Amino acid sequence: MNRWIATAVLAAALSAPALAADAAKGRISDDVVKIGVLTDMTGYYSDLAGPGSVEAAKMAVEDFGGTVLGKPIQVVSADHQLKADVASTVARKWIDEDKVDAIVDLVSSSTALAVMPVAAQKKRITLLSGPGTTAITGAQCTPYTVHYTYDNWALAHGTGGAVVKQGGDSWFFITADYVFGKSLESDTAAVVKAAGGKSLGDALYPSPGTTDFSSYLLQAQSSGAKIIGLANAGQDTINCIKQANEFGLTKSQNLAGLLVFISDVHALGLATAKGMYLTTAFYWDRDDASRKWAKRFFERTKRMPTMVQAGVASAVGHYLRAIQAAGTDDADAVMAKMREMPVNDFFAQGGRIGPDGLHRHAMYLAQVKSPEESKAPWDYYRIARIIPAAEAFPSAEEQKCPCAPTTLDAAKCPYLGK
Amino acid sequence: MTPPLYERPVFWGYVALVAVGVAAPFVVYPVFAMNVLVMALFASAFNLLLGYAGLLSFGHAAFLGSAAYVTGYAAKALGLPVLAAVPLGVALAALLGLLFGLLALRRSGIYFAMITLGFAQVVYFSVLQMPWTGGEDGLQGIPRGSVLGLDLGNRFEMYYFVYGVFLGAFLLIHRTIESPFGHVLRAIRENEPRALSLGYDVERYKLVAFVLSAALSGLAGSLKALTLQFATLGDVTWQRSGEVVLMTLLGGMGTVVGPSVGALLVLTLENYLASLGSWVTVITGVVFVVMVMAFRRGVVGEVRALVRRSF
Amino acid sequence: MIRALSGQLLLGLINGSFYALLSLGLAIIFGLLEVVNFAHGAQYMMGAFLAWMGLTYLGVGYWWALLLVPAAVGLSGVAVERVLLRRLQGLDPLYGLLLTFGLALVIEGAFHQAYGNSGSSYPVPEALRGGFDLGFVYLPRYRAWVVLVSASVCFFSWFIIERTRLGAYLRAGTENRRLLQAFGVNVPFMFTVTYGFGAALAAFAGVMAAPVYQVNPLMGSSLIMVVFAVVVIGGMGSILGAILTGLGIGLVEGLTKFLYPPAASVVVFAIMALVLLFRPAGLFGRPR
Predict the structure, then answer these.
(1) Which of B133, B136, B270 to mutate to test the interface with A (most CBs of A within 10 A)?
(2) Does the CB of B228 have a partner CB in chain A at under 8 Å?
């Protein structure tokens, strides 16, 4: 018996230096940093995220050097088809079986809200680029989520504010009937109201699944509102705009696309989309840094990046830098570093991730050029205004994230102390 | 004289079932195994109606899904323990089954199938509209809680709980099939006018079978909500109804274990081909076509026929 | 008020035209072959997609597509009937339903794999662009065309079935196919042609729908459920019932969208439940 005890103690003693050395070098779980891009590969949002987001993540890994703390970085991807249950199942399997450390993109608000608790319970980080609902950094927040690219508040204040300032004081909303659309509508309606305007009603339609918006557009027309607010995104927005033109609505009313991506403008064509205001987190032609990155993206995908895709690349880069700085891929340490370090890359300058997980950076109010103004392919936007970070996003106090140290509410945050 | 227990093949069948069930979570991903069990229960409940009563219901997902939502809501928003949330789901499914049955059983055959389909669509759109279901977003973050000392958050303990319930329900279905009630059902399926002329209250038998099938499908739905911790519209679509028809058809309708085999096969197929995207749908469709054209007895049925022929 | 209502009713009429066209095909197939053609939605989708593919890859325009695409899909229907459905003749009709269900999965899955979820847009043909300002609503010219064509096709089909000898054979076949065959009519051939015709009708509706509803692999599956309900309400074998009910449901949906939009999708199934309670054979059906 004594001999066994002695052997065990000796073994422990001999391995201790090795363990210590390992700790000093940086503990990476499972000896690999795996990043999972969970996005909509084939559906309504596949053009603005999808395979482009996967490419963006890969570019970020390559730019970082392909390894961190001596361990390789892998990028895996999957299609959640905009279904919350599929997203939830894939995320769970990735974490339980496939050793994925961080889940990126998600693109839709309902898939994001489904995956966040699954990841947070197992201490995995989610880097969201694409979902808009403010609940992500508000009532539904987790300590392991970063809401990276934009949120509905930014869009409502950016586009909504600009349109109201121009005299659009009565609105009718055509809203995608799920958490993203509804929250975008309520955020924008609040902005309109605060500016002295009013919302004359809304039409909720099932999304995804609706391709014919004629009856909703007709409701918008009968409301008599000056502005028809499109609280939707991607293919839905494109169809609404096209059909509004088809029904002659644009002669007497104006359309406000509350979430419009450069991929949408590309699909619509400048003749149809010209003059539209939109708020974006990224425009490829903004400055030299953005142009350089975007050109490389274009070479790989033959399209210019949307803000979602650019956001994915920037988020992945920031995540990897945080691992480097923290010396480990342990979620708590990495989250702390991500909040501590500012974001300074092609995507944003001086961006900061707050205690609630919201990445506050400058946003851009853009207007779509007319065909005559556009001098080159993808030359679509005129940047009307740069909205500074402090103005573009809600404050942490407003968000009231129960997991953030500044607005802590232990009763509402089930992830503390695990 | 009935042979002693250990000489009956059925007994050894159950032993094998228990052995496989106990070992399963160590061999495959427990959540996958639980999914298989839930769908096997759903298919077995469905088979009670199709294989034994001869009624093709194309709207069974309504029972699966509505129970899932009710259990999910009870567990998440009302904070009810598992032993209250699950029976609530089952009760709702049984009630829906009663309602559907009373109306749909007025017709038979194709008409019955189309009517159940239509009713299921009503359920689908109602679920979509109700605020507490979360609509397109679904009901997320359903807590698993604990039951009888088992912490269901742990996936192994959850698995054994689900397995226990499955075994119990499977036994119930099997006993029902072999009981006098089950025999009358089969008589109705084979020749309804004759059963009627023999004095059986055919309408009542069909209704009871329908409600039982609905209730057990609801049990499957409740378990599903707790296993996956969400309830979504995907559980009330007609595609899901079609999926259970496929499982039963593939495994062998009118056999006790066929539907479970069918569920295992379909889910395994979906799991391993998940990376191929929509090819899964295509292959599912091809399997459907092949089964209907050539193997109407299903896998178990064909195997059984083969075995009988060799003896 | 009136303006809004009449606008929605007009849109409802347009939707109703599609319902009528599709339920016509379904009713014809069910009437004669006793098969619930679950693949109808997929054939509709194929029609729209082939029109789009024709335009995108071969430069085949809308007008040619209206002629060629239904013919192509009709031929595929003929093949399906000849090779598959025929062998299920003597069996429980439920097997026919299951077979067509499987086919629907195959077709939709294949297109979904190739083209994903998002729609491809199909431009309105040049001659039918623009619209009429009717005062209470702006009616796009193309949508008026849809109503006109559907009405014509429905009337034409109804006329053939109810007023011609071929139609008489078809109707006789639904009542007693053995007897009809004894009279020397080639019933199996009739079945094949009928199924092909039904599929062609679905595809025709698909081509008509392409400029309105956008072309995407799931366009059939969302529509088909409503069409089934329409057929059940109208009476599963009745041609006239299918047409009138299709139009009627379109109008009712339009009305519901005006009065209480969230119920618009449910109303057809609620009506179906009501009708079945009081008239199990459907509004125009004959009890079998």
Answers:
(1) B136
(2) yes
CA distances from B2 to A392, B8, B14, B68, B183 (A): 81, 9, 18, 42, 19
CA–CA distance, C195 with C179 (Å, rounded to integer): 21
CB B139 within 8 A of CB B133: yes
Cβ proximity of B210 and B81 under 8 Å: no
Closest approach of chain B CAs to the CA of C37, in angstroms? 11
Please tell me which of the candidates B138, B141, B277 has its beta carbon nearest to residue A117.
B141
Which among B269, B289, B291 is the top mutation candidate for probing chain C, defined by the most C β-carbons within 10 Å of its own β-carbon? Answer: B289
CATH number of A30-150+286-361: 3.40.50.2300
What is the number of alpha carbons within 13 Å of residue A151 lying toward its C-beta?
29
Pairing of β B150-151 and β B146-147: antiparallel
Query: Using CA atoms, how far apart are residues A192 and A199, in angstroms rounded to an integer?
Result: 7
Phi, psi of A21 (to 5 degrees): -65, -40
Query: What are the DSSP calls for B152-168, one per residue?
Result: TTSHHHHHHHHHHHHHH
Chains that touch B (3 or more CB pairs under 8 A): A, C
How many separate helices (H) and strands (E) can be counted in chain B? Answer: 13, 2
What pTM did the predictor assign? 0.85
Q: Are B53 and B209 in contact (CB under 8 A)?
A: yes
Domain ranges in chain C are 9-217
Name residue, tokens 């600009």: A162
Q: Which two tokens stand for residue B142?
A: 């359903």
DSSP secondary structure letters along C69-122: HHHHHHHHHHHHHHHTGGGGTTS-HHHHHHHHHHHHHHHHHHHHHHH-SS-B--
Q: What contacts B59, CB < 8 A, 6 or more positions away?
A: B100, B116, B117, B118, B119, B120, B121, B123, B238, B241
For residue A81, give the 3-state DSSP assignment: coil
Cα C92 from Cα C77, distance rounded (Å): 21
A173 near A231, Cβ under 8 Å? yes
What are A222-270's pLDDT values in tens digits?
888 999 999 998 888 988 998 888 888 888 888 888 999 998 888 888 8
Over chain B (311 residues), what is each successive 10-residue block's mean pLDDT?
Answer: 74 86 86 92 95 90 96 90 92 95 85 88 88 82 81 84 93 93 92 91 93 96 92 90 92 90 91 77 90 89 85 62
Distance CA B290, CA B265 (A): 15
Within 13 Å, how many C-alpha atoms sit on residue A190's CB side? 12
Contact B253, B51 (CB under 8 A): yes
Q: In what order do the strands lie in the sheet with A359-360?
A: A343-344, A349-353, A359-360
Nearest CA to B41 out of B280, B205, B248 is that of B248
Per residue in C203-218, pLDDT (tens digit) is 999 999 998 887 888 8
Cβ atoms of C58 and B20 within 8 Å: the answer is no
Are C236 and B286 a contacting pair at CB < 8 A? no
d(CA A29, CA A70): 12
Q: Which residues contact C245 (CB under 8 A, 6 or more apart)?
A: C19, C23, C230, C231, C233, C234, C283, C284
Residues contacting residue C178 through CB under 8 Å, at least 6 positions apart: none
Is B234 near chain C, with CB under 8 Å?
no
Q: Which residue among A42, A218, A249 sits closest to C117, beta carbon to beta carbon?
A: A42
**Cross-strand partners of A387:** A363
| Domain A153-280+364-392: CATH architecture, name and number where available | 3-Layer(aba) Sandwich (3.40)
The contacts of residue B28 (CB under 8 Å, 6+ apart) are: none
